[in-house]
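We modelled the chain as a single entity of 418 amino acids. Its sequence is:
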Amino acid sequence: MYWKQESFNHLKKIVFDALEENSSFHDHSIMGLPATYLDPEIFPADAPFLCDSPYIKCFIENPNHIGLHTYHTSLPTFKGTQSIELDLLRICAEEIYKAESGEYDGYVAPGGTECNIQAIWIYREYFKNKFTAKTNEIIVLFSEDTHYSLYKACNLLGLDFHVLPVNNTNRSIDYISTEKILDRLISRGNKYIISIANMGTTMFGSIDDVDALSALYLRKKINFKLHVDAAFGGFIYPFSNPDSTLNFNNSNIHSISVDAHKMLQAPYGTGIFIIRKNYIDNVITKEASYVEGHDHTLCGSRSGANPIATWMILNVHGSEGIKARIATFIEKTDYICNALNKLNVRYFRNDSMNIITIRSEDISEDICNRYTLVPNSHTESPEWWKIVVMDHVNWNLIEKFISDLGTYRERYFEVSAA
């Protein structure tokens, strides 16, 4: 994994050159597109600061990245900024997730929810097209810690699903129970599995064992496709655990999605979907014949600005800079965990992640609310409260939290303050 660190000025020039290569709504004869630049009363295109703000300049120019730019042809009007999205996909697919050049498709989506729906949609159609599968023969499997977008996806796509139990202590999938579940599903007529594995669950930051999952499917000789939901962990786990098998070197993984608007600090509405080559052909929308290259995406029209922001973030830091940032997050998370250990506070944390989830019995609700910790339930009494060590979680905030928790523990439990 390596890509070069570039100066902001160098990246700015590339973005401005790309905008020049686009057909501008200001300067070109464009009469057929149902689009234009942003409202100039609110977003003036001649604001002086724009000469040093390539992302905001692109945002105001409003290029539409409709279509799939890894697939043959796409709308040439915005080919300049499309080329930057392609390079962003290259960095993510080839450098971070170890795909071979030219062996993947993908796009920048509005977020991880769409990416998960897109993956399940593709695999549903793949099973139907290749095996004439009936809808009731397809089952979606995911753990109980999986993001709620999977429930949305199954509802929208009319697919049955089964939730796999996890161990309450280490949050790993219970494979003994899963094998029994799988036997029941096969006996009732489920022949095709769409499996979702997590690279960092929302509440716990837990990592699913894709090798154990796929080994089980292979042993049962059932046809499966495996999507990795890396919405949270996708821009931390590959850097903090370079020996991970959650990448395209693993032949059992067929697609991966990641949110840049979490760990990478890109603007909201930036998900990245990557899938092995040709699978996405199963969802080509031929009815979109007025779109050059057709459309394979769920959302259709999408902003060209967010790919620019994400590409700039990755390149202004370079791979080594991103690794250094992640190392800082891990250092802070380790520090908090060491303090929790001294205070006899029970928690779950994957060593390569920056999420700490504390048992509710070991912390007061007042402290949780004071530091905006997130509970696992807002409708029932929480069992867990979550800390996420993001960029704004500085050492002063960490020390204050540990001090307040130590005072509480010293008062109500037989422990010494950290």
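As a brief sanity check on the tokenised model: The domain at 319-411 is CATH 3.90.1150.10 (Aspartate Aminotransferase, domain 1). The CA atoms of residues 285 and 295 lie 5 Å apart.
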